[in-house]
Amino acid sequence: MKQIYGPLLGAIVALLIIFPVAAEEDDGIHRLVLQVSDNDPQKMTSALNVAANVSRHYSAIGEEVEIKILAFNAGINMLIDGTSPVQKRLSSFRPSMPNVSFLACGNTINSLARKHGTKPELLDDVEVVQAGVVTLMELDKAGWTIVRP
Question: 86, 88, 90: which is closest to 38 by C-alpha?
Answer without folding.
Answer: 86
